[in-house]
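Narrative summary of target 7.
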Amino acid sequence: MEILAFGVQGDERPLIEEAFAAAGQHEVRCLDVFLTEDTAPIAAGYEIVSSSVNADLSGRVLRTLAGGGTKMIAQRSTGFNNIDLDVARRLGMTVSRVSYYSPYSVAEFAWTLAMAVNRRIVRASNRTRDFDFRLTGLMGRDMRGRTVGVLGTGRIGEAFTRIAHGFGMNLLGWDVAENPACVELGMKYVDKEELFTSADLVSLHLPLSQSTHHIVDAAALRTMKDDAILVNSSRGGLIDSEALVTELRAGRFEGVGLDVYEAETGLFFLDKSLEAVEDDTLARLVTFPNVVVTSHQAYYTHDAVGQIIEATVRNVQDYLAGRSSQNTLSPA
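Modeled conformation, tokenized:
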């Protein structure tokens, strides 16, 4: 059986092909285009389709896929807020995700963003390329003794907290349930308002849902310290981007590191360098000297991508064997 994989990055392609070849019995056709309403007809005749995190799996796309004979979707990500599961279940489609991969990939990258904006790494690098070795405007801060606020203390949040503990920081956390491992490290769980008010560094590690959409809204941003650092390596929709621009224009925040953006679909993972920028909010964000924006790459390590692909192969094997697992989203 041949499987069709959408949105495959260049570094990812040989890993996917090798993994399915090692599993035997299956071939995989890799496409660099993303699964959208326009590209969904390409999947006609493919029983199994694999999608990436930025795929459009709305009801309309799912119906197109089902009409072409697709019965199983194997999403290569943990998040699945892009999938209309109600429609998938009504269509009788099997949908899986990757419920676990290396939490260190994202946690370490979140810290990379935090330190990049704190120590002005991008600005310093740009200067030295022009042989400008002045230090003016590059002063950062020690992290030791300062307070970090972690929203979401699951596997990734816990890994981020362990690094913060290594820096010698005071630990504040917020989540629907406390993580005993974080408590053992000395984390104090508080309400969101206290976390926003008290933290010198706020890092987001939450899934995107109706309850977490714009959890960092205009009100939350206003309560944060003027010299706070804000990092988001989870989902773009957790932050109200327009409200963030307003606060940045007012000269607030020591630094902001964003690996995700709420309107990133159709932008991230693509080369738009020769096109006019139509997203005014993103265009404004990247102009601030205290903001670093990266292209949803926090998960992108050899270790994590390898684990994602291995789980995807297992999900396909489970579907063909009539099995379900913790990765199965539909049927429920």
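The mean pLDDT is 96.
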